[in-house]
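Task: sequence design from structure.
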């Protein structure tokens, strides 16, 4: 996918990632540390994480097309593209956490000690993955904004 209604697809799709990835990250952290939130939101979070994971490579491919179609790229554009290539790993990590939280939700009726340990581990992983995903989105977006509007060449 290179264009949507005549506009570069990357410029449109990137906004979905910029909203969805941090939203999924924050919801996973919330679900990790607040069981009532997990009971209410777990399936929504799983769906949003899946959409994010599907949209990430589509967005990066559209960005690669845009980069190649624009002539000689400036160094900041190359930095943006390089950072963007890492987003798939964070999207997959968000999906894995969402799946783990869904499994915990299904097993919630059981009161065995290993499940309690798993709940704590998943909550900590959700925090680490969530924060690192948000930081990554900000870093990618900053390089993209610098490439479009900034003074860095």
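Answer:
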């Amino acid at each position: 996918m290179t264009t949507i209604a005549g506009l570069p697809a990357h410029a449109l799709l990137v906004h979905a990632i910029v909203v969805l990835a941090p939203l999924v990250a924050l919801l996973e952290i919330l679900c990790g540390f607040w069981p009532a939130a997990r009971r209410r939101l777990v399936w929504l979070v799983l769906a949003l994480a899946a959409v994010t994971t599907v949209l990430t490579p589509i967005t990066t491919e559209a960005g690669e097309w845009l980069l190649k179609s624009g002539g000689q790229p400036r160094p900041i554009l190359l930095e943006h593209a390089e950072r963007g290539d890492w987003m798939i790993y964070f999207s997959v990590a968000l999906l894995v956490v969402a799946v783990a939280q869904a499994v915990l939700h299904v097993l919630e009726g059981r009161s065995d000690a290993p499940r309690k340990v798993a709940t704590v581990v998943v909550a900590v992983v959700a925090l680490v993955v969530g924060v690192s995903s948000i930081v990554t989105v900000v870093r990618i977006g900053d390089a993209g904004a610098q490439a479009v509007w900034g003074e860095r060449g």
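The beta strands are 3-4, 7-8.
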